[in-house]
Structures are given as structure tokens and as C-alpha cells.
């Protein structure tokens, strides 16, 4: 080969190397644990705003934590967006997260300041979730129930046998929060006695999205879940109402954490900052009709969301339920004493 051709070949190789790296620098993979439509919109808008090729993989919270554990030595994603924060804390406890304290944490509701001071180095709070029931009013009527359930204890009504659904806590964060909420209200023993009794009325434990769809279709009469999901179904025309249990308002928070050894760390930090912004938090309800409560004090909440002012949030020990050993112990206990005892 002539010297000039060699130089051209070398030039092309270098060009290819640099452009490959430039493309690599413009990437981001998000593990997403919110509704599919929200994952799509959030990731798409981020890509447009920052000219970054962002992709997402959607899974429930427990399922995403299991993926992070399985991929510990070879992480496949850069950031985990959404899902119950207890599982994010558990991921932190297991050493699966990278430190990053977003400056936007300063804009998060002050009532969570203590939690942010303690855990914000690994996990940010992107939204607030309120736990309750969804009811299908037509199905309740068919079952001869004229008064919808008001309290957790009302779900034990024998007329509801086979018509209650809740997600499986092995994959879903929702039911983990429900178990923890009942433990906060009544203590562990009574909470598990209740869950065993409720078993008699539960037709099946499925993914949270399916629990909501089944309620709308009238395949169940009562669902346990985060109540904003029922506001969306009602808006679509389903005969569904949401109920805040009389015993007190259980809740969780939406977590967001950068994954340890993320390949696209700088882009993950950009995403974290943006996802906490007023723009991103309002986009969730304005453009995807999903009504979790924004945590950025400058973000307007949807009129469909329950106002935090009207909530009496129970005292909830995120430190305890965010420990990985406690998470595993409670999920295993539920499996053995509740689901498999069916
Ligand atoms: N985040 C949001 C916004 C949700 O609506 C839900 C469930 O309704 C969750 C997280 C928890 O989802 P999962 O129980 O599938 O983990």
C-alpha cells in the first residue's frame, strides 16, 4: 500500500473510532417502573431535549430490583426511574447504586427533607403515591353490595369472595407497600393474620397493571393499589372509583437511582436532574394522563390527583422497609404464609 493510502486508511479508522465513541456518549438506558405510556413519553422527551439516544426497559419494581441483582457484575442499564422507593433503598443497601445527589433535590417537597438528607446521595424522590382501593361500582352492585368498602377490614366481606385482586409482591412494589402499611397500622402479627384472611377473597395475585385492567373490566370488584391508577381508568369511562381506607393514608414514593458502573454516567446524571424538574413532572400527567403526585414544589399537580393537603399520611419507616434483608424476609413470609397457603 502507498503511504498516502495507508494514511487514508488510518484516518478512516480514527474517524470511525471517534465517531463510535461520540455515539456511545450519546446513549442512555433507563430501567423504568412507571406506566408504559409514561416511560415512553419521559424517555422520548429527554432524548429530544438533550439529543441523546435514550432507550427504556419497563418492569415492575420488584422485577427491576431482581434484574439489578442478577446484573450486578455486568449492569445493562444506567438509571432506574420510578417504582416504589423501598426497593430503591434496598438496591442501595445491596451496593447496586452509584452516588449522585442531584442539585434539583432542593426543589423536592420539604416534608421529605429528612429522607432526602439521609438517602439522597443514592436515590431521589420523583413522585408521591397514595395507597388505597379501587372499586368497580357496577360489579359491587351485581354482588349485592350497596355500600363500597371504606376500611381494610371491609375487604373481608364474604360477598367479595373471588372478587378482590392485588399484585404479587414478588414482582410488584405496590403490595410490598401494602404489607408494610398494614404492619405500620397494626403490627406484623395482625397484618399477616389479615392478609391470610383476605386470601379467601383474592382470586389471583397478578401484575399491578393487570390488577387495574381486571377491575375496569369487572373481572374483580375491588383492587388494592395506588389510587391514581383508578382516576385514569375512570377518566377512560370505566365504572371505577378510588377509596382511601379509613384506617389512615398509606403511601410510597417514586424512587430514581443511578446504577453502579453505569456506562453512560454523565447522561444518567442529566436524566436525573431533568426527571426532577417541573417540566418532566408535569409532563407525566399533562401528556400521559397518569396522576401520581409531583414532588417538585414548583410543579403543578393534576386536578385528578388527590391533594397532599387532604392526606393524613401514616408514619412509615422507610429505613426499615428499605432494608434488603427485611424486604426479602417479608416477601418470603408472604409467599409461604399467604400465597402458598391458598
Ligand atoms: N409507580 C407508579 C407511578 C405506579 O402507578 C405504580 C403502580 O401503580 C408503581 C410505581 C408500582 O408499580 P408495581 O407495583 O408494578 O411495582
Automatic annotation (TrEMBL):
Protein name: Bacterial extracellular solute-binding, family 1 protein
InterPro entries, per database record: Ferric-bd
Domain of life: Bacteria
Annotated signal peptide: 1-24
Record bears the keyword Signal: yes
Keywords attached to this entry: Signal
Organism (species): Pasteurella canis
Amino acid at each position: 500500500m502507498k503511504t498516502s493510502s495507508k494514511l487514508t486508511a488510518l484516518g478512516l479508522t480514527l474517524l470511525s473510532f471517534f465517531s463510535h465513541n461520540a455515539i456511545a456518549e450519546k446513549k442512555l438506558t433507563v430501567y423504568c417502573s412507571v406506566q408504559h405510556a409514561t416511560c415512553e413519553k419521559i424517555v422520548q422527551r429527554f432524548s429530544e431535549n438533550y439529543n441523546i439516544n435514550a432507550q427504556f426497559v419497563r418492569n415492575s419494581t420488584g422485577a427491576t430490583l431482581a434484574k439489578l441483582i442478577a446484573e450486578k457484575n455486568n449492569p445493562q442499564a444506567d438509571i432506574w426511574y420510578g417504582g416504589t422507593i423501598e426497593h430503591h433503598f434496598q438496591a442501595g443497601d445491596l451496593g447496586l447504586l452509584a452516588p449522585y445527589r442531584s442539585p434539583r433535590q432542593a426543589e423536592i417537597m420539604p416534608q421529605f427533607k429528612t429522607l432526602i438528607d439521609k438517602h439522597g446521595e443514592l436515590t431521589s424522590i420523583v413522585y408521591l403515591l397514595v395507597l388505597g382501593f379501587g372499586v368497580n361500582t357496577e360489579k359491587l352492585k351485581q354482588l349485592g353490595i350497596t355500600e363500597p368498602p371504606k376500611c381494610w377490614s371491609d375487604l373481608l366481606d364474604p360477598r367479595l369472595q373471588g372478587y378482590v385482586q392485588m399484585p404479587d409482591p414478588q414482582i410488584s412494589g405496590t403490595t410490598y407497600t401494602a404489607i408494610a402499611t398494614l404492619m405500620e397500622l397494626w403490627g406484623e402479627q395482625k397484618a399477616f393474620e389479615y392478609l391470610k384472611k383476605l386470601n379467601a377473597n383474592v382470586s389471583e395475585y397478578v401484575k399491578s397493571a393487570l390488577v387495574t385492567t381486571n377491575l375496569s373490566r369487572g373481572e374483580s370488584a375491588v383492587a388494592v393499589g395506588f389510587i391514581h391508577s383508578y382516576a385514569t381508568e375512570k377518566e377512560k369511562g370505566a365504572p371505577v372509583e378510588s377509596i382511601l381506607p379509613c384506617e389512615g393514608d398509606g403511601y410510597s414514593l417514586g424512587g430514581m437511582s443511578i446504577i453502579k458502573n453505569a456506562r453512560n454516567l454523565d447522561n444518567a446524571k442529566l436524566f436525573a436532574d431533568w426527571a426532577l424538574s417541573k417540566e418532566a413532572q408535569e409532563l407525566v400527567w399533562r401528556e400521559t394522563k397518569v396522576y401520581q403526585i409531583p414532588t417538585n414544589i414548583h410543579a403543578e399537580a393534576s386536578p385528578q390527583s388527590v391533594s397532599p393537603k387532604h392526606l393524613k399520611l401514616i408514619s412509615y419507616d422507610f429505613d426499615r422497609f428499605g432494608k434488603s434483608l427485611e424486604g426479602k424476609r417479608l416477601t418470603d413470609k408472604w409467599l409461604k404464609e399467604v400465597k402458598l397457603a391458598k
